[in-house]
Amino acid sequence: MSDAAQNPSPTTEAGAIRGLHVVSLAPGADLDGFRAAVRRLIAGRIPPETVVWQSEAPSLFGIDMDRAEGAPLRLPRAVTDLIPMVVPHRDPERYGLLYALIWRVLQGERALMEVASDPLVHRLHRMRKAIGRDLHKMHAFLRFRRVPGEGAERFVAWFEPDHHILAAAAPFFVDRFRSLNWSILTPEGSAHWDGTLSFGPPGRCEDAPEGDSFEAGWRDYYENTFNPARLNLDAMRAEMPRKYWRNMPETAAIPALVRAASARAQAMIEKEPTMPVKRDPVRAVAKMAQDEPDSLEALNAVIARSEPLVPGATQAVLGEGPVGARIAFVGEQPGDQEDRQGRPFVGPAGQLLSRALEEAGIDRREAYLTNAVKHFKFTLRGKRRIHEKPTAGEVSHYRWWLDRELDFVGPRLVVALGATAVLALTGKQIPITRARGPAEFGKPFQGFITVHPSYLLRLPDEAAKDVAYRAFVDDLRRANALAA
Ligand code: URA
């Protein structure tokens, strides 16, 4: 008797359909159903090419998966981490592709996930990225509105994700809005929080309130953090597709801001540089502690509104990258270019860092990049603004923000680029040469210490530069592996 006959397929009648095994899962993202099916299929040694996965419609055959647990499988972490990030994808082939991967891994290709050129691995990586982007959009663009009326306060949001991500996205909102009662309505289902998280049937756009008293607050925040020098309409439309605009009160401000952007940017550039005058750090830190932002957006709004400790900078330079990034990089402070453009690591050191990241196999867009100090500090030499290293007092002034920022981003590993970043992350002055490599920062993430890319730019001769650059790329590779 064949193995499959001894261990019937998960769907008892499926074997009858010309040797195919039909697995029926719930519509949407049925992670538990998929895991249970995989255990049973593997126990039955049923190869992927004989399995038909059915999930988008009620089962043609009216067969429900038997959810009894099979024996747990021993899969590499890279595979177990991937599964929940692919199951929510809208592609009907997602379960089949995942099962094919699991099959091959269990047949002996244990390191298959590391073979980025394998077409199956490549496709699954792309699917995982699409889910990451969709989650990021939902986390960033969903807006709750207060339900009008007398009773207990309640908030409702309408959102249309591209994939089946409601269940995967909900914990983020539980974390951020734990003290509120809220519902998220989507065309496929709804999530509700009143101290307990539950899921229900689909909602309709009309079921969410039209607007509320928070709208002005969102618009203010957007107007305050909008940087005219960074306006790039194509990038903006790609990052914030129009379909989300109608749920986002702040988008009402966009047309006017866009119209005024080039004049405002020109004014920023033409502003005569002035010599900095120092503020009182004790009062500044006390003021900062009064703000208790409850999200990265709210924190960034506070940072964007803040005055530089040492005046002179055009603007605060905020961190950049997705919430939930696996790896974060902390630099020293923005330089001249960063100050003008309002983005971290866009000047010469930033460009060198980008090149090194690419060589180390790290996608800059998936990492989080920020600085220990949020404002550019300089001395004037003629009209040139010459970078000045922040003092220990200035670094400690910004530490509270950096800590909150990394709490919200939640990376697995943080790379300190240079001594100022180490000081900001540990509170200690530690020579890089002694501490280079994996490190413990006493924080809920792993640490890694390496040099700052501007150190490489300052090295006097090309041969030394080359050796130091190679060592830097090696460090980034190591850090990337640790964060994996
Ligand atoms: N150096 C830094 O530390 N950060 C930047 O953003 C640019 C240069």
TrEMBL record:
Residue ranges annotated for the Uracil-DNA glycosylase-like domain, each copy included: 318-477
Pfam families named among the record's database cross-references: DUF4130, UDG
SMART domains per record: UDG (SM00986), UreE_C (SM00987)
Keywords of this entry: 4Fe-4S, DNA damage, DNA repair, Hydrolase, Iron, Iron-sulfur, Metal-binding
Domain of life of the source: Bacteria
Iron-sulfur listed as a keyword: yes
Family: Belongs to the uracil-DNA glycosylase (UDG) superfamily. Type 4 (UDGa) family.
Annotated PANTHER family: TYPE-4 URACIL-DNA GLYCOSYLASE, TYPE-5 URACIL-DNA GLYCOSYLASE
Protein name: Type-4 uracil-DNA glycosylase
Protein species of origin: Methylorubrum zatmanii
